Amino acid sequence: MLLLVSIIALPVHIYSTAYMKYDERYSRYFTYLSFFCFSMLALVVVDNLVLFYAFWELVGFSSYLLIGFWFTKDKAVQANKKAFIMNRVGDIGLLSAIIILFTQFHTFDILTLFANKGLIAQSVVNNGLWIAPTGQLPAIWQYIAVAGIFLAVVAKSAQFPLHTWLPDAMEGPTSVSALIHAATMVAAGVFLLGRVYPMFTETELTILACIGCFTAFMAATIALTQNDLKRILAYSTISQLGFMILAMGVGAYASSLFHLATHAFFKCLLFLVAGIVIHQMQHIRDDNDLDIDPQSILYMGGLRKRLPLTFIAAIIGGLALIGLPLTSGYLSKDGILIQAFEWSEGKSVWLKIIPLTALITSWLTAFYVARLIFKVFFGDLRLLNIHPKLKLHLTDGGWQYKLPLALLAVCCLFPLFSFNPFSYEQGWLFKGLNISRITKFESVYHLIIPVLVNVISLVVLYLAYAIYVKQNSFAFSQTGFLYRLSYNQWYIDKIYKRVFVKPVLGFGKACFWFDKNVIDGLIHLLTKLSGYAARLTAWADKYIVDGFLHLIATIVQSIGNFARKFQTGKVQYYLFSMLVIVLLLFILKILI
User: Fold this and answer.
1) How far apart are CA 81 and CA 505, in angstroms?
2) pLDDT tens across 320-355, in order?
3) Are 202 and 55 in contact (CB under 8 A)?
4) Phi, psi of 510 (to 5 degrees)
C-alpha cells in the first residue's frame, strides 16, 4: 500500500503542476494534496487502532478540503459538506468498534489482536471462528463491533447506502478525483476491512458479499445513462469498490486487495484522461464564448484524432476496467468472479445469485465504458452541430500531461503484475506470498468464467459500437421506467433528501424559529422588564432616596444658616438675644 499510494501520487502531482497552473490558490492546492498523502501514508503503516482512527479522520478532513477547494462554487461547498457528514456516520461506527475491542482485550495494538499467538488464535480460513484465550467477545458485542467497522467501510468506500457522496465529490479538481476518489481514499475502507479481516464470521462475510454485490450492480446500472464524464467514472468507482467488498465476503482476500491495486492504476488513468478532455472542452467554451457544460459527453465526439495520446490512454484504461485479457484488470476481476462461483457451491439458491449478479455487472461495465469512449472519442464533435463555426485548438498538452498518462497506461498492462497475461499466479508481485486460493485449474469455473466473461464482453462492446457509432436503430428508449430509474440514480439521492435532508432542515428551521421567537423572545422580554426595573430603580433612587437626603441636607443647611445669623460678633446683639430668650422662658413659665 505504501508503494501503491506513492506511485499513484507521483503522476497526479506532476499532472497537477500543469492542470492547476493558472489557479490563484496554486500553493494552497499542493498544501492540501501533500497533507492528504501524508495522512494516507500514515494510515497504511500504523499498527495501533487509536492512531489508525486519527489518520482515518485526517484522510477524511483533507479530502473535505480538496473536494471544496473551489469554495466559491456553491456546488463544491455542498459536496464537501455532504462527503464530510456522511463519512462522520461511518467514523462513529469505527470509534465504537475500537472502544469495544479495547474494553474486551485491553489493547489497541492490531498485531496483538490478530497475531497467531495473540488474543485471536484462529483466522477466517477456518470459517471465521474467533477464539480468544482470554475470553471470547460476547456475541452481541461481536455483532456491534463488526457492524461499526463495516459502517466505516461503507461510508469511506462509498457502499450502499452511504454511497451518494462520491458522485457529488466530483466537484473538486479532476486531479483530486484521480488521487483520492479513484485510487487511495476510497480504497481506505477496503484496506480497513483487510486489516481486521479475522474478526468476521462466515455469516458476517456473507452479508458483506451481499452488500458489495448489490452496490456493484446498482452503480453499474446508474453509470449506463449518465452524461457527466466524471460522474460516470465516479459510479464506476463505486461499482469496482463493490467488487472488492464482494471479494472480501466470499473469501477472496488476496483477489480483493489485488483488484484494489489494479483498479488504482486504471481508474486514476481514466480520471486524468477525463481531466484533459474537460480542460480542452473548457478552452472551446471560453474561446467561443459558449454556454455549455464542459463535462457533458453530449457535446463531445471525434476527439481521437485531435487528442491521440489521450485516446490511446483512454482505450488502455477502459480495457483494463472492463477486464479484457492482456490488462491488469483481467487478472484481478477474473480472480474475484471465479472464487465467487466457487464460494457459491453448496450455498442456498439465493446466495448463488451473488456471483451471477457480479457476472452481469462485469458486462454492464463493458457497456458503459464503451459508451463513454465512443461518445467522447468517436464520430464527429457534436458541438459543431450546434455551432458550426468554432475555433478549435485542441491538444494533448505538455509533458506534464503526457508523462503521467504514459506511466499509468504501462501500469494498466499485465507485465507489471504477471509475466503470464492469463494468470497472476506466476507474477513477480505474488512470489513468496502464502496465498491458498490463487487461480488454479481446480474446477470448471477456471475455464468457463474467463471465456464467458470476455466473449460476452466483446459482444457487448460491439453492441455499444453499433448503437453509438453506427447509429443503429435499436437504441434504448429514454422514456421507459428502467432508463428513468438509472438516469435518476435509482432515486436514492431524492429519497434521502425527502426522508432525511428535508426533515432535518425542517427541524432546523423549527429550532431556529423557536430560538428566535421563543427563547430570544423570552430574553428580549426579560431585557425589557430589566430595563423597566432599572428605570424605576433609577427614578426611586433619584427622587426618593436622593430627595430625602437632599431634604435633610437642606434642613440642616437652613438651621445652620439661621444659627449663623446669631454669631455676628456684636455684644449688644448677644445681650438682646439673651433678653429675648429670658422673656420667652418667663412667658412660657407663666403660661404653663
Assistant:
1) 14
2) 999 898 898 888 888 899 999 989 888 888 889 999
3) no
4) -65, -40
Q: Cell numbers of 377, please?
A: 472519442
> In the prediction, which pLDDT does 364 show?
94
- Alpha-carbon distance of 576 to 299, in angstroms, equals 124
563-569: average pLDDT: 74
Spatial separation of the C-alpha atoms in residues 187 and 210, rounded to whole Å: 19
Cβ neighbours around 208 below 10 Å, total: 23
User: Which has the closest alpha carbon to 332: 342, 341, 322?
Assistant: 322
Copy the grid coordinates of residue 150. Answer: 463495516
- Phi and psi of 109, rounded to 5°? -75, 120
Q: How much is the pLDDT for 127? A: 37
pLDDT tens string 75-132: 999 999 999 999 999 999 999 999 998 888 888 888 888 764 344 434 433 333 333 3
C-alpha cell, 152: 466505516
CB 409 within 8 A of CB 317: yes
Average pLDDT over residues 533-558: 91
- Distance in angstroms (rounded) separating the CA atoms of residues 124 and 130: 8
Query: 169: how many CB neighbours lie within 10 A of its CB?
Result: 27
Angle at 411 between CA 407 and CA 417, to 5 degrees: 150
Say yes or no to pLDDT of 17 above 70.
yes
Tell which residue, 65, 11, 74, 1, has the closest CA to residue 401. Answer: 11
Percent composition of the chain: helix, strand, coil (DSSP 3-state, to 5): 75, 0, 25
What backbone phi and psi angles, to 5 degrees, belong to 291? -110, 80
Residues 6+ apart with CB under 8 A from 414: 326, 327, 328, 330, 331, 420, 421
Grid coordinates in use for 50?
A: 487509536
Quote the pLDDT of residue 478: 67
> How far, in whole angstroms, is CA 444 from its chain's centroid?
40
Strand partners, 327: 413
Q: Are 3 and 264 in contact (CB under 8 A)?
A: no
Longest Cα–Cα distance in the chain: 149
Based on DSSP, count helices (H) and strands (E) in the chain, helices before strands.
Answer: 24, 0
pLDDT of residue 115: 65
Q: How far is CA 392 from the centre of its chain?
A: 36
Please enumerate in sequence order all residues whose Cβ is within 8 A of that of 384, keeping only pairs 6 or more positions apart, or say none. 390
DSSP state, residue 385 = H
All three cell numbers of 119, joined, read: 488474543
The answer to pTM > 0.70 is yes
Strands (E), 117-224: none
pLDDT 10s digits, 176-233: 888 887 778 888 899 999 888 888 888 889 999 999 999 999 999 999 999 999 999 9
CA 37 to chain centre: 16
Of 315, 504, 538, nearest in space to 405 by CA: 315
Task: Report CA torsion sign: 177, 178, 184, 189.
Answer: positive
Nearest to 241 by CA among 183, 157, 165, 179: 157
CA–CA dist 42, 59 (Å, integer): 10
Count of positions (residues) in the chain: 592
